[in-house]
Amino acid sequence: MNNFLTDAPLPFCKGCGHNHIAANTEKALQLLGYDPMNIVLVTDIGCHGIIDKSFLTHTVHGLHGRSVALATGVSAALNNPDKKVIVFIGDGGATIGMQHLIDAAHNGFNMTVVIHNNFLYGMTGGQPSEFTPFGFKTPYLPEGGVKTGYDICKLISAVDGVSYVSRLEGISDFSKELAEAFSRKGFSLVEVMEICPSYGVKSNPGMKLSKVVEGAGLKIEKFVDREVEAYKTVVKSELKPLFNEEDAIKTLFATTLKKPIRLMLCGSAGEGVQAAAEFLLKAGITSGLNGTKKGSYPVTVGVGFSAAEVILSSEEILYTGSPNPDVICVTSADGLEYARKTLANMKGGKLFIDSSLKAPETKAEVIPFPFRERGGAKNSSIYNIFYLLKRTEMIPMEALLHVFNENKIAKKFDLGKMFQALEEPFYAEINEKTTAPM
Amino acid sequence: MEAAVKESRLIMDGSELIIESLARAGADVFIGYPITPANLLYSYSQERLPSFFAAPDEISTLQWMCGYATTGKFPVTASSFPGFALMLESVNMAYMMELPMLIILVQRLGPATGTATCGAQGDLALLNGAISGGFSLPVVSISNMKDCWEMPAKAMQMAIDLRTPVVFLTSKEEIMTLASFSIAKLNAINKIERKFYEGDETYVPYKTGESMVPEFLPVGNSKHQVRFTASTHDQKGIIQNTSKEAIDNTKRLEYKHRQNHKQHLFYDYDEQNGAETLLISYGITSAASREAVKNIREEGGKVSLLKVKTMLPVPPVYFELMDKYKKMVIAEENLSGQFRNILFGERGNKNVKGVNGIAEMITPARIMDAVLCE
Ligand SMILES: Cc1ncc(C[n+]2csc(CCOP(=O)(O)OP(=O)(O)O)c2C)c(N)n1
Ligand code: SF4
To answer: Are A72 and B73 within 8 A, CB to CB?
Structure first.
């Protein structure tokens, strides 16, 4: 028969319930005929946690409250139900780390959690936990608990995916019950009710464990015992690279762009600003240029402004910001708000702006066009970039058409209608700076 | 029409280079909780790494990673300050247990939730003090797309060689901005083979030789008992109060980094003969710094550039390089000059100028002004 504990005395106060749990765990593992090398014991911080030094199994001694999450990682990585993962945690650890218990139970990770419930924080001097029953006194709660404690067994029983939940009193021999929990696949939990003589008994002289448990309305019973699907970690072996040389963009067009061009597209979320910027970027690359595209938007991507900065250059692009862009395209009021500061600083360049908007004071040449009216809000950015290439010669229109037609958006898009709309005269009456289309 | 002859390029972001690099180097699992601007790393990992876990929060993330790491597998996560703050106690645990893992920290504008979609370089000071006791937590950063490919695998090697969590420090624009990029000349990244203890004698988890790094052995192995603990411990991994053996073990955690730093030293030094000013930068500000240097030189000015990639612990060679210059300019996207403070302290140095700011990328023009002013 294998030993699971060293011969050294256990590291707990005399009469502490933790002693019984350690001894019964050894006995339970012996009953099941386990090899200590097939056990990983994960312990929490608290009096109970320092038991790791007494165990002859693999041991991992982590942080306060996190042992179940730590064991989750061990269990998911071992991915082998023959390697038994056991967690020792106190009522304190179960309080601060409740989320981890619910989560491990919910997923059915392979492990048995043994909660050492002595109704208080032993290690730090007997403060109450969320498990402290009504009326139970501790050195920090001389009047007794003012609310009922958690019924962890009820809570965990309510979680799908649990295979075994039971509560027992940690006196005499409970190795068979522990063995039952250890033998289950998936997630099992045992709450062992016990007494901390140093703080529990001192504060509640003459207390009897069974009375406390009964008084707290906690049932000593098996709550769950069923076959469940234990967690299996997916380990994929056939994985494709994220990118391939074959997907490289070929240079199909030529451009006469002499110096880098920096553009800013500003509009509203859901109106194709980012997509339009990517079309420009790809068109530039197809024309043999280098390019970058940086997006800006509020955290909730579906509302508010959406802006993109595109840089195209025949040289290597280092700095990817555009504090002084050569071209700003504004297709909505949100976009105008976003662009205001940059527009005020512009020393030249062009502003393409939806004609429904009032162009602010700027040194840029203002070019209004009814993008929204003619293309609809959704297509306003696409209309804008095609109009931009009609009016400037930064990259060939064919390049933009080429990359646009490669995209699935093109299928539902009426290019003929757009080009006609971009041709039709438009007489601006925005402000005195406005120049009519050439 | 005649097409311009150019090497073919892909449109890429730094995130995919990072995850592909880690996949090839043999990272086993990504465990993470979503947060802007780290989400591309999350989604690429889901597609590319052998295993993937959506953890319910960042404390769980780091704990699951630690559990994974005890079994000899290599975990990766990515987060931003709010998530990293939750991870901190567990990062200390990983450090104490000596568990190799990679934490990609994508900086965004703080404090607190700040602006999730705005980049920043505001977390270096936190990392410098992240380990209780002032111990060195290795931090590496990147300066361009090529680094997004090369540095993750190097950081992973470093984590394994030194048995430590490593923080891979980056920021929003470095990993989210799309750019034309040629992958044709990228060097190959080979799978990192883990070496585990193979002896027959009893395995002593925290016993070390000259390297000061203990040999690793996974929990759950059938031959030797393995112990990991986050509390002060002796070589056997048994909790101790302040015994000499245990405190020596704790001190070793710092010494191993100091002793082995040369094997994991990464920086780019672009020296110009006759230059009296050294421009120092890292991360997102490196690109603006390079542009500033290019412009200054084109106009006949002289300046050298040090792009720092091994950030913490600060390698002594940086000070040797600095000693050659009359003036230094340190450009970084935060308010107080965090790297400058780490190098020169709160009192600063009259020969050192900072170029700082928040909420927008530092411009080459501002860096040029600082380099060129008297
Ligand atoms: C994050 C954190 N908060 C607080 C503590 C201090 N602390 C150590 S043990 C403990 C409570 C232990 O109580 P319990 O889990 O019930 O175990 P017991 O000591 O009763 O066996 C506390 C609060 C800590 N170690 N870590
Ligand atoms: S203080 Fe209480 S819980 Fe801790 S070892 Fe002593 S009796 Fe047990």
So the answer is: no
